[in-house]
Specification:
This protein has 21 helices and 30 strands. With 755 residues, it is α+β, with helices and mostly antiparallel strands. The strands form seven sheets. An eight-stranded antiparallel sheet has the order 11-12-13-14-22-18-17-16, with no helix packed on it. Strands 5-6-7-8-9 form a five-stranded antiparallel sheet, with helices on one face. A hairpin with a 2-residue loop joins strand 24 and strand 25.
């Protein structure tokens, strides 16, 4: 059996106790700091108890500004919270949660809770089916429920509970002497240590005036903050979101306790290093590099928590606002019509109210009406503790207005989003087409997520739990996403679970919006590792507020198997394979997937490109969705096609409401270029007809050389070196007239033809 922190935490060979108060006061405080004269005098006189009291009084009413609010501001903050928020839903929820925590019933994450009767806390045992729950228990995100309920009610039981929890935790979890537990999922792994430094700060300040927060425990927490800061300064990560959270914690402790001798050094180091880690994490288009909207939000949070704090304390933060505002723009477009994050990469369902609060904070920080449109009409209760009562009036005067654009492309981070409008029931699609860094990214290049009528209709697998088991391996795989698997292999081959190479290289070739349709065209190069390289490209045409047409293109020379996956939400799926379609069967929002018959036969495009469609099969199988801590089976459509050389497949995604299944007819139309019939891979010609409408669509596929993105060594080339799209000759679609456009859509009432 491997011994870890749980077993060794009280062994003096591995951990150290908190310093005695006398030693701490004399050695660790800058007693020359203005206002500390009485502390210095009592320390010199050997009066430890008196010095401790003088030091705590210095924190309570001294001149230093330490936090978003100081100890002397708590009374005003409490009064405002009671007068303006006591009856709000968020405040009531906070009090309910605080009552449960006071009884030993603690919320963890993903809906799970841990119960510790009579204060018998167990901080180091495995909870449920993942080590993540124990980590969240010791990160103390939930502890702010106690301090905010205290402000709302004045009930000392919340302060007494905080005092009890802190005393128990600090006695039971001494600091490691070195890095023995640095890579272990445990109470003292550096990320959890960094997180504690900012989750505990609010309660430390809020409860400071309470008689139930004893001097003894205050000193223990102060000394522990010092040990936390030393540990993070020594062992913080050098990559990814961990580094940002740890340095944010270091900065916040340095500001919280500026009289510590080491605080100025920690602050200088944190302020110097933090911007570099933000630049490392955030691409120039504002997308966080781990290909996960969740971790985009995590790194955003480090910025939007620090920016108002540094502003209050008059500390310059050059460049932070520009990066943060652009990250907000990304988040704004990512949000689905029901106010959640799309579940790309390691992303799970977020509480919608929390995301609205985040957008409200963005509106307050940047004065943006579009951010407020996705937030609250009045300053929410949760932001009172970051912006203070004085911000409420200015926020209330800010007008909310829907964002101007319904489509967005972030080409470096690799997110594309389109929607019919900014309403809650709008049609919405998002696609991944960028490189993801490290273990939170999935093998999901060109995967799409669809929402309409207030429901997720094409689903992503979600994040899974982080144990490296078969469920987690499925969740990160290509087949768990709405994209294509080539020859049974993932696009991206992992090495270790977390220390893994970047995901497949991607290139977004074209994005168009405005008018009756939006259009995307992107490729990924994950399968160019094969002896016979395969390039998968995907074109998406959104015929506004009707349907999406997805066209998958494959460039290869030899025979390959292409398995296209479409993941439906949990529930019944109705297959009608004779019609080449499948649909959901909900009482409200639904989706119909239709797979047009392939052209078949052999083709030669006259430029060396050939293809032969061999066989195709449609089937339904069971997948696995992860939602709020649980795995659930779901129906999955698998379209398998074997083809020699270049290949193409199309899918129509038609959302509809609770009414009868819509009538949809799809027929292929011949496409000619300068009088020459084009092969299926060269152009897609379709007539798609529904109730009262008919669209004729021509997509030409050979004017962009997608192979040119990689040079002879397999590395991507710069945009400046890419060849320009070829000039297109005269295209004709089944007698619908000549044109020179690679995307051509004509809509008209059913029963008529385009002129």
């Amino acid at each position: 059996m491997t011994l870890g922190y749980k077993e060794l935490r009280h062994n003096p060979q591995y951990t150290m106790p908190l310093m005695e108060d006398g030693e701490f006061l004399s050695r660790e405080l800058d007693l020359t700091r203005p206002g500390m004269e009485e502390v210095a005098r009592l320390v010199a006189a050997g009066d430890t108890e008196g010095a401790r009291g003088a030091y705590l009084q210095f924190i309570a009413d001294g001149p230093a500004r330490r936090y978003y609010f100081d100890v002397k501001d708590v009374a005003r903050l409490s009064g405002y919270a009671c007068a303006h928020h006591a009856q709000s839903g968020e405040a009531r929820l906070t009090v309910r949660e605080a009552d449960r925590i006071a009884e030993g019933d603690i919320p963890l994450f993903k809906g799970r809770r841990a119960v510790f009767p009579d204060g018998a806390y167990d901080w180091n045992s495995w909870l449920f089916d993942s080590s993540q729950y124990q980590l969240h228990l010791t990160r103390f995100k939930y502890i702010s429920h106690l301090s905010r309920a205290y402000c709302l009610t004045g009930d000392e039981k919340y302060a007494a509970c905080f005092n009890q929890i802190m005393n128990h935790f600090l006695e039971d979890n001494p600091t490691p002497l070195d890095d023995a537990f640095r890579v272990q999922h445990c109470t003292w792994e550096p990320l959890t240590v960094g997180v504690r430094m900012f989750t505990l700060s609010e309660s430390f300040i809020t409860f400071f005036p309470s008689p139930s927060f004893t001097s003894e425990v205050k000193m223990k927490l102060i000394k522990s903050f010092q040990q936390h800061a030393r540990y993070v300064r020594r062992y913080h990560a050098t990559h990814g979101n961990h580094a940002c959270m740890q340095l944010r914690g270091l900065i916040q402790v340095a500001l919280l306790l500026p009289e510590l001798k080491e605080a100025s050094g920690w602050l200088a180091y944190g302020l110097r290093e933090f911007p570099g880690y933000i630049r490392q994490n955030v691409y120039e288009d504002g997308v966080q590099f781990e290909a996960s909207p969740n971790y985009h939000l995590v790194v955003m949070r480090d910025l939007f928590e620090l920016v108002p704090l540094l502003k209050r304390l008059d500390i310059p933060a050059p460049g932070y606002n520009e990066v943060l505002e652009q990250m907000y723009v990304v988040l704004m477009h990512l949000l689905t019509p029901d106010g959640r994050l799309p579940l790309f990469g390691d992303t799970d369902l977020h509480v919608k109210e929390e995301l609205r609060e985040v957008m409200s904070l963005g509106a307050a920080l940047f004065g943006r009406s579009d951010f407020k449109y996705l937030g609250y009409s009045e300053l929410p209760f949760g932001l009172l503790w970051r912006l203070g009562p004085d911000a409420a009036g200015e926020y209330g005067r800010l007008t909310a207005a829907p964002p101007a654009d319904t489509q967005a492309c972030f080409p470096v981070g690799g997110y594309l989003m389109t929607r019919g409008d900014w309403g809650n029931n709008a049609m919405y699609m998002a696609m991944r087409a960028g490189v993801g860094i490290a273990g939170h990214a999935h093998s999901d290049a060109l995967s799409v997520i669809v929402h309409a009528n207030g429901r997720e209709l094409l689903a992503d697998s979600g994040m899974g739990l982080f144990e490296w088991n078969k469920e987690r391996k499925y969740a990160v795989s290509t087949r768990a996403h709405n994209t294509v698997v080539v020859d049974g292999q993932d696009q991206h081959v992992r090495s270790l679970h977390w220390n893994t190479p970047p995901t497949a290289a991607c290139k977004i070739w074209d994005v168009r919006h405005g008018g009756p349709y939006d259009y995307w065209f992107a490729s990924h190069y994950g399968y160019t590792r094969y002896d016979d390289p395969v390039i998968h490209s995907r074109k998406v045409l959104f015929v506004k507020n009707r349907y999406w047409l997805i066209v998958d293109l494959f460039e290869a020379k030899e025979q390959h198997r292409y398995d296209s996956y479409f993941h439906l939400p949990r529930g019944e799926a109705v297959c009608e394979w004779e019609k080449r379609q499948i649909r959901t069967s909900f009482a409200d929002g639904n989706v119909l997937l239709v797979f047009p018959q392939q052209g078949g036969g052999e083709w030669n495009d006259g430029r060396g490109g050939t293809g032969r469609w061999a066989r195709e099969e449609l089937a339904a199988e069971s997948g696995l969705l992860f939602r709020q801590g649980q795995y659930h089976p779901n129906p999955v459509v698998k379209r398998s096609m074997t083809a020699l050389g270049n290949a193409v497949s199309e899918t129509v995604v038609l959302p509809y409401g609770a009414a009868a299944v819509p009538h949809l007819e799809i027929s292929r139309l011949p496409v000619l270029l300068d009088g020459r019939p084009l092969a299926p891979y060269e152009a897609t010609g379709l007539r798609i007809a529904g109730d009262g409408w008919q669209d004729e669509i021509c997509l030409y596929h050979r004017n962009v050389n997608v192979e040119a993105y990689l040079d002879h060594t397999g590395n991507p080339v710069s945009d400046a070196l890419l060849p320009q799209p070829e000039r297109i000759g005269v295209l004709e679609l089944a007698g619908s007239g000549a044109h020179h456009e690679d995307v051509w859509v004509k809509s008209h009432p059913s029963g008529t033809t385009a002129s």
